[in-house]
TrEMBL record:
Compositional bias (Acidic residues): 229-253
CDD domains with a match to the protein in the record: Ribosomal_P0_like
Organism name: Cacopsylla melanoneura
Gene3D superfamilies reported in the protein's UniProt record: 3.30.70.1730, 3.90.105.20
Protein name: Ribosome assembly factor mrt4
Family: Belongs to the universal ribosomal protein uL10 family.
Main localization (coarse): cytoplasm
Keyword Nucleus tagged: yes
GO cellular component terms given for this protein: cytoplasm; nucleolus; preribosome, large subunit precursor
Region listing for Disordered, in residue ranges: 222-253
Gene Ontology biological process: nuclear-transcribed mRNA catabolic process; ribosomal large subunit assembly; rRNA processing
Length: 253
């Protein structure tokens, strides 16, 4: 009886070896980062976008970012006082929960907090995102859309047709309401409308200082450097107005 084509033996040795090698490389990179940098920040990401995380890496080339693989990172740093590679660094491991990462840097704490408190980047919302506002389309011509996209709009649920080559909506359409959990269709329409709702932002929530062996919760700050920055900006605007009256893993960089 001939063997079935489905009856194939697949060796996973290369895949396993590659996976172990990547984990070992990540562990080695983390150990070197601990030796090189004095400060470690544990962070989470709102509305994760790989392209935008890459932009952050480019702005922080003098530092090192690791994202994902919490178990590997925790193992490299040490999960307890007995196996930690630096004093109290096991507390960093205990803070690795969910989708998070580590920033290793020698920049001052004030500069780091200022940069990340201020930094955010708008992007298009994806399905599953909670809408931040009402978006409605009124009956009539939709000049923002080229005629070639009209069939796609109908597939997305809009009641449209072409009137003299212009995409026309013949009935008011509610794309979404504030608080709605966006469907793939709603997210696609918002993107076609060039309507950005999501904000990519990195939130620093734990800080570790290697020299002192201290670990700090950053979520309980009463006033952030960004708040102070905004106050200074407002003061500058007030001064300007008075004068007028007078005269932006795998552990790779």
């Amino acid at each position: 009886m001939p063997k079935s084509k489905r009856d194939k033996k697949i060796t996973l040795s290369k895949t396993v070896k590659k996976g172990l090698e990547r984990k070992q490389n990540l562990r080695d990179a983390l150990v070197k980062a601990v030796e090189k940098y004095d400060n470690i920040y544990v962070f989470s990401v709102q509305n994760m976008r790989n392209s935008k995380l890459k932009d952050v890496r480019n702005d922080w080339k003098d530092s090192r970012l690791f994202f994902g693989k919490n178990k590997v990172m925790a193992y490299a740093l040490g999960k307890s006082k007995e196996d930690e590679i630096q004093k109290n660094i096991h507390l960093v491991s205990s803070a690795l929960r969910g989708q998070c990462g580590l920033l290793f840097t020698n920049r001052s704490k004030e500069d780091v907090l200022m940069w990340f408190d201020v930094y955010e980047d708008e992007d298009f919302a994806k399905s599953g995102f909670v809408s931040t506002e009402d978006v409605e389309l009124k009956q009539g011509p939709l000049h923002e859309f080229p005629h070639s996209i009209e069939p796609q709009l109908r597939q997305l649920g809009l009641q449209t047709n072409l009137n003299k080559g212009i995409v026309t909506l013949f009935k008011d359409h509610t794309v979404c309401k504030k608080g709605d959990v966006l469907t793939p269709e709603q997210a696609r329409i918002l993107k076609l409308l060039k309507k950005k709702m999501a904000k990519f932002k990195i939130l620093l929530y734990m800080y570790y200082n290697k020299k002192e062996g201290t670990f700090e919760n950053l979520l309980n700050r009463e006033k952030t450097p960004a708040d102070i920055y905004d106050m200074d900006q407002d003061n500058d605007k007030d001064e300007d107005s008075n004068e007028e009256e007078d005269d932006e893993d795998d552990g790779s960089d």
